[in-house]
C-alpha cells in the first residue's frame, strides 16, 4: 500500500507539472512582432505586420507578410514609413507618412511598388511621431476607409487611379462592416457639442444618421443586426452603450458601470444581443454576461476568474468564446461561463486596448506598436487534474459509504436486470446459466425452442435440454462461450418447426460480488426478417436519402450569417462547395442506377440552357464568366436526362479553369434534323492521351478526390438513348469544347411555331 501511495503521489506531481491548470487547453506565447498585425488573406499571405519606421533607422522593413502558421513569407518597403495596409485588387494598398503628407500607394503582392495608383493627402499639424493613421476595408465592399488624425476619407479605385473623397472631420470612431452582403462605413463624429453616428453606403451616401452621447473616446462594434457604440461620457463613470438596429435604424442606450475596454457586445445563440463585462466589485475579477436589450441596474452574478493575473486589460468575444487579457496573462471562457484556459504570461504590450485575432491554432494580440501570438495546446489530462481537486474536497468523505453500498446495489441490480430481461416481451431467446453451465432460467420463447415444459426440472447441464435436432449450432456456441469466459456474439442458424431461422446470439458473463463469474446470460434475436429487408434496400434509395440530407446541410449553410467574421464566409463557401460535390456524385449514382426509359416532353433548347446556367451561383464561382449564345428551338426529349448531361459538361468546364479567371460558353443552334448544344471553356485543355480516355468509364484526372469519372459516362449514355452523338475536342492551354447533337424528334411546323411564340 505504501508503494502504491508513493507511485500515485509521483504521478500526481508529474501531471501537475505538465499542466498548469485543470482546463481543456493552454495558450502559450509563441511569437512576437514589433508592429500591428492585420489579417490580409491574400494569395499565400494570411497576415501582415505593419511596422512604423523608427526614427533612428531606415533599414527595418515597413511590412512583413506571414503565412497562416506565422512563418515569414516576404518583407519589403524598407524605406517607407507604413502606417496602414489592406488587400487591394491583386496586390495591396498602403498608407505611408512622408514629411507631413500621407501617401496612398498600390503595391504588388510581393510588396514591390507599382507605377500607377498613388495619391497624396496633406493635412495640417500632422507630426510623424504622433500621427494616428488607420486604413481599413471590408472584403464585401469596394471602398477603403482612411482616417488621418480624426479626418475620415473614402478611397476608391477609378480609371486606374485612386480617388479620395473627404467624409467627416472630428471622427472619434470608425468601422468598415458588411450588412445584408453589402459594404458599409460607420462613423462616429462630433460637431461642436453634439455627436452623431452615421452609416454610409458604397456610393458614399449617408443611409442613416442618429444623435449619440458626446464622447472624445468611443469604439464601434458590429454584431449581428446591431451597430454598437461604446463611449465614455465626460463627467460620468462607466460606459454608455448605444445600439443601432441596422434593419429598422432604431436606437437604444444603456449605461454600464464598467470601464469601456472591459465591455464587449456579442450575439448569443439563445438570447440575441448580449454583453460580456469584467468587474472587480468583490475584489476578484468576475466575468458577467447579460442580455444587451435588458441590462439590469444591478449586474447578476458571473464567473469568478481563479488565479492571479494582475489587472484586466480588455475583453473581446471571438465566436462563442470570451477572451480576457490581463497584465500578466490571458483567460478564455465559453458562452456558458466555463473557463476554457488560464495562462500566466508576460505579454509585453503597450498600455492600450489590443485587438484580438483568431488563428487556426490560437490567437494574436495586436496593438499599433507590438503584437504577440498565443498558440493553443490541448491538455488531455485536464479532467484528471480537476478530478484530483474534486476528490480532495468531496469524494474521500463519501468513499467508504459508497463502497459499502456498492456490494448491496450490485446484487440487487443484477437480480432486477435478469428479471427484466426475462420478462421483456419480444426479447427473443433468453437463457440464464450458472457458472458451471447448468440451466437456471429461460423465457417463454427459449422454452418453446428447447421443448421445455413446466414439468421439466431446472439446474441440469444445458446440453440435457438441447437434444432436439436443429439446436446443434446453439449448443456449440454455448460450449465455446463457457470455455472463453468472455462476451461473445455470433450468427447462429437454428431450425425451428421445420423453418430455418438465423439468430444473433450473445453470451454475457455475469459477475458476482467478489468479481468472479457467477453465470452467463445467453440472449438471441431473430434477425431473419431484418436480413431479408436489408437485402431489399438498393443504391437508388440510399442515394435519394443522401440527396435529402445534403440538401438540408446546404440550406442551413446558405443561411449562416456572413457578417460576424471573414472566416465564417470562407467556411461557408467551403461547406457549400463540398456539399455541391457530394450532391453531384449522388446524382450521378442515381442517374447510373435509373433505367433507360425516356420520359419525353417538348423542351425549348435555349430555355433549358438558361436554366442550367442559373444553377451556378456567381458567389460560388466568382472567377467564371458565363457567355450565352442561344438560338433555340423545340425538341422532344427527356428533360431531366438532357439537363444532367449538359450540367455535367458545364461542371467539367468550370473544373478545367482550376480556380483561375476564365470563360465558360453555352451555345445552342439547330438545323432541320438536329439540335446542337455546345459547352466550351478557356481552361487548361487536354492532351491527346487524356482526350482518348475521356469516355472510358470512371476515368478521371482529378487528384483531389473531386472527380469520379461518372459524369462523362452519363453524358455519353444520355446521348446514346436519345440516338444522339457527343463530340469532344480540346487543345492544351487553349480549352475544351463539348458538342451534343440531339434529334429534335418533333414535327418541323410545330417546332417552328413554338419557337416563334416563345420569342414573342
Task: Give a verbal description of the structure.
Among the domains are: 424-534, PAS domain (Beta-Lactamase); 595-759, 2-Layer Sandwich (Heat Shock Protein 90), CATH 3.30.565.10. Strand 26 and strand 27 (321-326) form a beta hairpin. It is flat, with a radius of gyration of 36 Å. Helix 6 (539-558) runs antiparallel to helix 7, helix 8 (605-614) crosses helix 9 and helix 9 packs antiparallel against helix 11 (710-721). The protein is of the alpha+beta class and 760 residues long. It contains 12 helices and 44 strands. The model is unreliable at 1-5, 10-19 and 748-760 (pLDDT under 50).
Could you name the key traits of this structure?
single chain; 760 residues; Beta-Lactamase; Heat Shock Protein 90; flat; disordered N terminus
Rg from alpha-carbon coordinates: 36 Å
So, CATH architecture of the domain at 595-759? 2-Layer Sandwich
Helix percent band: 25-40%
Uncertain runs with pLDDT below 50, 5 residues or more? 1-5, 10-19, 748-760
Determine the structural class based on helices, strands and strand pairing. Answer: alpha+beta
Strand adjacency order, main sheet: 34-33-37-36-35
CATH topology assignment of the domain at 595-759: Heat Shock Protein 90
Rounded to the nearest angstrom, the distance between the terminal CA atoms is: 97 Å
Describe the biggest sheet? 5 strands, antiparallel
Amino acid at each position: 500500500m505504501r508503494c502504491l501511495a508513493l507511485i500515485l503521489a509521483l504521478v500526481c506531481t508529474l501531471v501537475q507539472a505538465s499542466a498548469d491548470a485543470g482546463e481543456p487547453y493552454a495558450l502559450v506565447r509563441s511569437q512576437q512582432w514589433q508592429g500591428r498585425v492585420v489579417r490580409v488573406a491574400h494569395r499565400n499571405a494570411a497576415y501582415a505586420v505593419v511596422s512604423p519606421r523608427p526614427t533612428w533607422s531606415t533599414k527595418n522593413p515597413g511590412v512583413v507578410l506571414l503565412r497562416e502558421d506565422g512563418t515569414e513569407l516576404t518583407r519589403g518597403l524598407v524605406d517607407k514609413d507604413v502606417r496602414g495596409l489592406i488587400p487591394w485588387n491583386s496586390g495591396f494598398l498602403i498608407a505611408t507618412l512622408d514629411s507631413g503628407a500621407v501617401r496612398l500607394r498600390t503595391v504588388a503582392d510581393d510588396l514591390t511598388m507599382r507605377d500607377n495608383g498613388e495619391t497624396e493627402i496633406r493635412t495640417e499639424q500632422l507630426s510623424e511621431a504622433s500621427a494616428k493613421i488607420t486604413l481599413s476595408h471590408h472584403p464585401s465592399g469596394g471602398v477603403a476607409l482612411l482616417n488621418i488624425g480624426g479626418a475620415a476619407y473614402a478611397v476608391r479605385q477609378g480609371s486606374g487611379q485612386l480617388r479620395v473623397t473627404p467624409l467627416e472631420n472630428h471622427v472619434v470612431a470608425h468601422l468598415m462592416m458588411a450588412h445584408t452582403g453589402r459594404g458599409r462605413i460607420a462613423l462616429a463624429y462630433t460637431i461642436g457639442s453634439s455627436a452623431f453616428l452615421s452609416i454610409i453606403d458604397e456610393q458614399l451616401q449617408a443611409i442613416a444618421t442618429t444623435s449619440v452621447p458626446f464622447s472624445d473616446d468611443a469604439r464601434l462594434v458590429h454584431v449581428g443586426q446591431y451597430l454598437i457604440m461604446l463611449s465614455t461620457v465626460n463627467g460620468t463613470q462607466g460606459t454608455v452603450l448605444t445600439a443601432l438596429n441596422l434593419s429598422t435604424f432604431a436606437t437604444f442606450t444603456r449605461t454600464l458601470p464598467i470601464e469601456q475596454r472591459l465591455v464587449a457586445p456579442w450575439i448569443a445563440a439563445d438570447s440575441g444581443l448580449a454583453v460580456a463585462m469584467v468587474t472587480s466589485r468583490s475584489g476578484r475579477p468576475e466575468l458577467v454576461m447579460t442580455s444587451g436589450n435588458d441590462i439590469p441596474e444591478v449586474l447578476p452574478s458571473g464567473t469568478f476568474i481563479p488565479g492571479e493575473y494582475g489587472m484586466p486589460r480588455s475583453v473581446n468575444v471571438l465566436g462563442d468564446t470570451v477572451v480576457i487579457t490581463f497584465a500578466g496573462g490571458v483567460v478564455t471562457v465559453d458562452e456558458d461561463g466555463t473557463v476554457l484556459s488560464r495562462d500566466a504570461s508576460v505579454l509585453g504590450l503597450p498600455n492600450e486596448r489590443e485587438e484580438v485575432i483568431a488563428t487556426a491554432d490560437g490567437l494574436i494580440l495586436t496593438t499599433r506598436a507590438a503584437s504577440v501570438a498565443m498558440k493553443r495546446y490541448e491538455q488531455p489530462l485536464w479532467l484528471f487534474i480537476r478530478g484530483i481537486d474534486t476528490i480532495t474536497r468531496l469524494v474521500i468523505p463519501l468513499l467508504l459509504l459508497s463502497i459499502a453500498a456498492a456490494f448491496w446495489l450490485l446484487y440487487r441490480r443484477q437480480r432486477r436486470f435478469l428479471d427484466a430481461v426475462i420478462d421483456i416481451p419480444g426479447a427473443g431467446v433468453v437463457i440464464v446459466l450458472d457458472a458451471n453451465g447448468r440451466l437456471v432460467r429461460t423465457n417463454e420463447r427459449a422454452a418453446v425452442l428447447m421443448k421445455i415444459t413446466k414439468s421439466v426440472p431446472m439446474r441440469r447441464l444445458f446440453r440435457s435440454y438441447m437434444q432436439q435436432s436443429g439446436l446443434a449450432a446453439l449448443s456449440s456456441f454455448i460450449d465455446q462461450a463457457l470455455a472463453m469466459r468472455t462476451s461473445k456474439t455470433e450468427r447462429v442458424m437454428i431450425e425451428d418447426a421445420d423453418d430455418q431461422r438465423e439468430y444473433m446470439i450473445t453470451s454475457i458473463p455475469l459477475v458476482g460480488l467478489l468479481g468472479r463469474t457467477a453465470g452467463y446470460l445467453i440472449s438471441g434475436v431473430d434477425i431473419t426478417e431484418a436480413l431479408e429487408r436489408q437485402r431489399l434496400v438498393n443504391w437508388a434509395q440510399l442515394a435519394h436519402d443522401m440527396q435529402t440530407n445534403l440538401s438540408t446541410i446546404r440550406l442551413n449553410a446558405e443561411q449562416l450569417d456572413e457578417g460576424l467574421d471573414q472566416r465564417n464566409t470562407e467556411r461557408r463557401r467551403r461547406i457549400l462547395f463540398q456539399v455541391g460535390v457530394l450532391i453531384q456524385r449522388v446524382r450521378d449514382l442515381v442517374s447510373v442506377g435509373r433505367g433507360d426509359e425516356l420520359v419525353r416532353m417538348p423542351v425549348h433548347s435555349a430555355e433549358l440552357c438558361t436554366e442550367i446556367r442559373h444553377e451556378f451561383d456567381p458567389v460560388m464561382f466568382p472567377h467564371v464568366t458565363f457567355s450565352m449564345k442561344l438560338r433555340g428551338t423545340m425538341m422532344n426529349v427527356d428533360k431531366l436526362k438532357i439537363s444532367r448531361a449538359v450540367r455535367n459538361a458545364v461542371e467539367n468546364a468550370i473544373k478545367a479553369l482550376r480556380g483561375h479567371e476564365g470563360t465558360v460558353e453555352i451555345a445552342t443552334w439547330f438545323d432541320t434534323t438536329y439540335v446542337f448544344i455546345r459547352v466550351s471553356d478557356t481552361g487548361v485543355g487536354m492532351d491527346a492521351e487524356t482526350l482518348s480516355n475521356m469516355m472510358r468509364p470512371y476515368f478521371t484526372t482529378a487528384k483531389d478526390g473531386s472527380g469520379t469519372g461518372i459524369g462523362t459516362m452519363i453524358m455519353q449514355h444520355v446521348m446514346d438513348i436519345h440516338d444522339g452523338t457527343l463530340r469532344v475536342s480540346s487543345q492544351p492551354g487553349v480549352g475544351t469544347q463539348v458538342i451534343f447533337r440531339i434529334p429534335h424528334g418533333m414535327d418541323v411546323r410545330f417546332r417552328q411555331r413554338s419557337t416563334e411564340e416563345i420569342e414573342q
